[in-house]
Each structure stands twice: as structure tokens, then as C-alpha cells.
Specification:
The protein is built from 13 helices and 9 strands. By secondary structure, the chain is of the alpha/beta class. The strands form 2 sheets. Strands 5-4-3-6-7-9-8 form a 7-stranded mixed beta sheet, with helices on both faces. Strands 1-2 form a two-stranded antiparallel sheet. Helix 3 packs antiparallel against helix 12 and helix 8 runs antiparallel to helix 13.
């Protein structure tokens, strides 16, 4: 640039996106000019990569039309940077016809890796006071126990001696069934059912139930949480551990939980939410929406909502004793621990073997940590009781 001050390595934004064409670039024979030409070629490659990344792969936009992937229902659309790190995996991820197919495919691909590294529980761990701990598997078991205790569902020798008689439990979004089998052991004599969109997860959950001698009490099947194959009032406890994030219609989700819950029974939802809007806010600021939209694409999530909306939906269904809690601090060390395992050779090679959607999910993990750190993402619990009449 000192020899040829008119040669610039900076290009207009629009040129980087659409107008760079190596074939039209003038031939440059000098040493500096050759370097300039290489930069042109790099920008052209980047432009083609970004263009293909935005059109070739599933990003909650399906062959049948868009399935809205938004942080908030009032968000006008995804806010995209020119290129995000997780986009490197997008051209290799096959498009799916529906959101449910995308979710099922993601967990079909990634569940084996998660079990291999983290075990049978596919959710956050509980870290008292946000203090780090090394026993992450036990932290996940503690999350189940602490959630049940918070909801007033104490462990007892007999299911009938609890404050709520627990004979039948439904695990909505059961993963590979860790919570269901834990609760089957917690309440001897109770029967648990689990539903998931992933055939791989359902098969593995049933296999683990057989291995643990629980096949007569814990069974799992493929089903849609928004259209459950159960009769009204079928379960004493309806449990959803980190599955509400995937529900495109939160009102229908709560409606189905209430429908299958027996009168006097309890509903417990543990889920990611966005923060409650501040006074005067109609939606989250653009930078927070951008963060959440990138997470939506990585984990096949539709719009987010706040815990206040969940509480309102429960009240609208006629549920009583609605309570909420924020355990964001108690889960804050979790994503750091997950990221550390992904950065080991075992974790890195496992991501590559699992597939491109899992790779993209791995690249999005730091965004979850950042969202919790900033307070945009909240880890919430909601419990409610179905009235007797």
C-alpha cells in the first residue's frame, strides 16, 4: 500500500455480500497487486460461503414454508451478522419439512454423544449458590431432586404418603428417560411414561429401562407434546424438564399439560426463558434478540417467552397455586463445564463423528453461557395444581 497508495484492501459491505467477482477483477502482476488479488479471491469465497449458508440449510425455515424462529413474538425477524461462527456447519445440515422433524433429527444425531460424555440426564445441573463443582452427573440428579422438593413433592417410602399421591407420572420431552427412571425409583410402585420426538431417544430410553429392571414401570414412545396420545386426567404428575423451549405454541403446550393432568395433580415445568420485559419495553433490544435468534437456529427452537407468560398461561387454564422461581444463578457454571468437555479431544472428535447439526450446537454453547451471564436468558421453574373441580 505504500508503493501503490490507490490499491486498497478495504471493500464496501455490499461488495463483500454480492458484487465481488474474481473474473471481473483486473489482472495485477506486481507483488503487491498479486497480494491484492488474493484478498479479492478471499472476499469472493467469503461472499459465496455466506450466501450458501443463508440459503442451503435448515434454519427453522422448512420446505413447506417458514416456521418462525424468533426470540420474541414481537421480533420482526432474525437479526444476522454477515457471518457467525456456527454458520460453518449450516451448508452440511439437511433441510427438514417441519420443525418437529428438525428437532427429532437433531436429537437422533446428538443424544449418543451426550450420553457418552454426560450420562443419561440431558439437562442442566444444580450448583448451589452458583459455585462450581466437579460432580456434574450428580449435579444433574440434584436438579431433579431440588425441583421436586421446590414443588412440594417430597421423596417418601410410599407414593401415597406424599402431599400429592404419585402413582402415574408423565415425562414430556423425556430425552433418554433419565428423569423418568429416577422418579420411578424415588416413588416405588409408581408408573412413568415418557414422550419424545426422537425415535433414537425413545428406543434408547426403553433399552436403559430394561437394563435397570424398570421395563414394567417406565416406558417411552414417540409422540408430540402438543398432541399427546393420552386420555384426559391420566397422570398425577406432569413433568417437563427443559422441553418447553422447543414448543412453538406455548399456550397449546400448557393446555396439553393441564388436559392430561388429573384433578388434584401437579404440573412442573423447568425451562429456559428470556428475561421479563422492563417497564416501557415492548420487546427485547436488538442485541439480545440477535443472541437468542442464533441460539434458536442452533437448537431448533421457536420463539422464547418469559416466566411471566408461563404463569399467565397456567392461570388462563384454570390452574391454581401457580408459583415460579428463577434458578439462573444455580445453573450458571453448567455451560462452562459443557464447553470444557467439548474442547477435549474426546469431545471434539465426538462432535465431528455425531454430525453437522451437533457441531453447530457445540458452536452455539458459548452463546448460552453469554446469555445467562448477561441476564437475557433465565432458568425458570413453574408449578401449578389442577383443581379438583
Amino acid at each position: 500500500r505504500r508503493l501503490f497508495p490507490r490499491v486498497s484492501t478495504r471493500f464496501p459491505r455490499e461488495a463483500m455480500q454480492t458484487r465481488v467477482s474474481v473474473s471481473r477483477a483486473p489482472a495485477v502482476t506486481s507483488r503487491v497487486g498479486a497480494q491484492h488479488e488474493r484478498i479479492l479471491r478471499q472476499h469472493a469465497w467469503a461472499a459465496r460461503t455466506v450466501k450458501s449458508a443463508s440459503s442451503a440449510a435448515f434454519s427453522i425455515t422448512t420446505r413447506r414454508g417458514p416456521v418462525v424462529c424468533r426470540a420474541s413474538s414481537s421480533s420482526p425477524g432474525p437479526i444476522r451478522s454477515l457471518f457467525n461462527l456456527e454458520d460453518i456447519a449450516k451448508p452440511f445440515i439437511s433441510a427438514k419439512d417441519t420443525l418437529n422433524e428438525g428437532i427429532a433429527s437433531f436429537y437422533d444425531e446428538s443424544s449418543g454423544l451426550w450420553e457418552d460424555v454426560w450420562g443419561e440426564h440431558m439437562h442442566h445441573g444444580y450448583y448451589p449458590g452458583g459455585a462450581p463443582r466437579d460432580d456434574h452427573v450428580q449435579a444433574q440428579v440434584d436438579m431433579i431432586e431440588r425441583s421436586l422438593e421446590w414443588a412440594g413433592l417430597e421423596a417418601t417410602e410410599s407414593s401415597s404418603s406424599s402431599s400429592v399421591r404419585i402413582d402415574r407420572i408423565l415425562d414430556v420431552g423425556c430425552g433418554i428417560g433419565g428423569s423418568s427412571r429416577h422418579m420411578a425409583r424415588r416413588w416405588p410402585g409408581c408408573v412413568t411414561r415418557g414422550i419424545t420426538l426422537s425415535p433414537v431417544q425413545a428406543e434408547r430410553a426403553n433399552e436403559l429401562a430394561r437394563e435397570q429392571g424398570l421395563e414394567n414401570r417406565s416406558t417411552f414412545q414417540v409422540a408430540d407434546a402438543l398432541n399427546q396420545p393420552f386420555d384426559d386426567s391420566s397422570f398425577d404428575l406432569v413433568w417437563s424438564m427443559e422441553s418447553g423451549e422447543h414448543m412453538p405454541d406455548k399456550g397449546k403446550f400448557v393446555n396439553e399439560l393441564a388436559r392430561v393432568c388429573a384433578p388434584g395433580g401437579r404440573i412442573l415445568i423447568v425451562t429456559w426463558c428470556h428475561r421479563i420485559l422492563r417497564e416501557g419495553e415492548k420487546t427485547l433490544p436488538d442485541d439480545e434478540l440477535q443472541l437468542l435468534d442464533r441460539i434458536c437456529e442452533g437448537y431448533y427452537l421457536p420463539r422464547w417467552c418469559s416466566v411471566a407468560e408461563y404463569a399467565r398461561l397456567c392461570a388462563d387454564e384454570g390452574l391454581v397455586d401457580v408459583r415460579t422461581a428463577d434458578w439462573s444463578e444455580q445453573v450458571s457454571p453448567f455451560w462452562r463445564a459443557v464447553i470444557r468437555t467439548a474442547l477435549t479431544w474426546r469431545g471434539f472428535l465426538g462432535l465431528l463423528r455425531a454430525g453437522p447439526a451437533t457441531v453447530r450446537g457445540g458452536l452455539v454453547m458459548p452463546l448460552m453461557h453469554e446469555g445467562l451471564r448477561r441476564g437475557t436468558i433465565r432458568f425458570n421453574l413453574i408449578t401449578a395444581t389442577k383443581p379438583l373441580s
